[in-house]
Amino acid sequence: MNEDLIQLLPVDPASWNPAYRWGIELIVYIQQIEKPLLTEIIKIITSLGTELFYIPAILLIYWCINEKKGFRLGVMLLISIWINMICKGFLKMPRPYEFDRSIGLAFEPSYGMPSGHAQITACFWIPLADWLSTFRNTSAVKPAGKPQLERAFFYTAAGFIILLIGFTRLYLGVHFPTDLLGGWVLAGIILAVYFIYGKRLAEFLQGQGLRIQLIVTAFMSLGLNVVYPQNRSLSALFLGFCVGYALMRKHLHFSVTSGEVKGKRQRFGILALRYLFGIAGAACLILALKFFLPGEDSVFAALLWFGRDSPAYELAQFLRYGSLGLWAAAGAPWLFLKLKLAAAEKNETGTGYFGGSA
Predict the structure, then answer these.
(1) What is the chain's Cα-based Rg?
(2) CA quadruple 47, 67, 207, 246: dihedral positive or negative?
(3) How far apart are CA 220 and CA 240, in angstroms?
(4) What integer best gives the mean pLDDT of the chain?
(5) Residue 248 predicted with pLDDT over 60
(6) Per-residue model confidence (pLDDT) at position 121
(7) Residues 51-68 pLDDT 10s
(8) What is the DSSP string of 291-327?
(9) pLDDT at 340 over 50
(10) Is 311 exposed, middle or buried (0-12, 13-18, 19+ CB in 10 A)?
């Protein structure tokens, strides 16, 4: 984190901010149950609040469950992460272990407030719970049971996961309770905009045509870069994913929710192969770009202009993540169609992204 900050923080607990003091007391209380095995389990659980979980999960939804839902959820999460980074950089709030190193069971290379784990977990699981709870209304097979009970079950499960991830952050000593509260409040604002205006924005962009959609995407990506230039990978991923989806809707018409593959409905085996090929393709693409573009992992890193200090390093990062987004949204669906692992959507009008019902 920031070693200078650690050294400059007051040693006397009586001089700490009351919120910090109360937060550290709560963390110390929670860590009374600390055991080595439990700590390792907690670290595994807390990883469910990182990109190591959310990126594969979004790709699973996009490639195998519902491409429209996967796209909209993925874009919302990217914007949410971007907002979280801006808030962290603006507030520059410390983490608990910077006051008391003995409670730090993990380390994070960023500021504390608001908690990214708390915010992104809520932004992922609440829309997913809403979708699953209304799935019976869009499914051809109406499941038995009361819709109200199903809705309560999915929202309760989402709430449990959100609180569980929050608890892991306290147990590990990487967040104050106020950090979690800040993340949840920010998530609430983002979700309110998503649920109230998301559909209207989708309908508006759908009516503008492919060219306008690409222009809007490019300007939004540029805006992400201008407002938060410290991280270009996020804006690149956003650009590649949105452009790829627009091109896919226009030219490929890949669809998870309609059509047959080899005369049969899209069963588990086909979906599993689709996901494995998609992930393998993404891994190969990232490795290839790391090897040949400027950066510390390049095979030409010893040469001028190709090392970590290369002036082209930022551009290489942008190309890497932009290519990953493009592959996820359009490259992988193209491969699925070529390998007969997916079907094109029937009666597709090619309206660009957000085309059709979501």
Answers:
(1) 22
(2) positive
(3) 12
(4) 81
(5) yes
(6) 95
(7) 889 999 999 999 998 888
(8) HHSSSTT-TTTTSTTTSTT-TTHHHHHHHHHHHHHHI
(9) yes
(10) exposed
Give the amino acid at 212. Answer: I
How much of the chain, in percent, has pLDDT values that exceed 90?
35
Per the structure, the complete domain to which residue 270 belongs is given by 232-358
Residues 166 and 238 in one domain: no
Domain match, 40 and 177 both: yes
The answer to whether 67 and 241 have CB atoms below 8 angstroms apart is no
| Cα separations in angstroms, 304 against 39, 80, 299, 314 | 44, 37, 12, 15
The owner of tokens 């040693």 is 11
The whole-number pLDDT of residue 299 equals 57
pLDDT of residue 335: 93
- Between CA 280 and CA 266 the distance in angstroms is 20
Angle, vertex CA 208, rays to CA 203 and CA 213, nearest 5: 95
DSSP H or E run through 344: strand 343-344
Mean pLDDT of 152-173: 93
Let me know whether 171 and 122 are in one domain: yes
If asked whether residues 184 and 293 sit together in one domain, one would say: no
The SS3 of residue 343 is strand
Whether the CB-CB separation of 92 and 308 falls below 8 Å is answered with: no
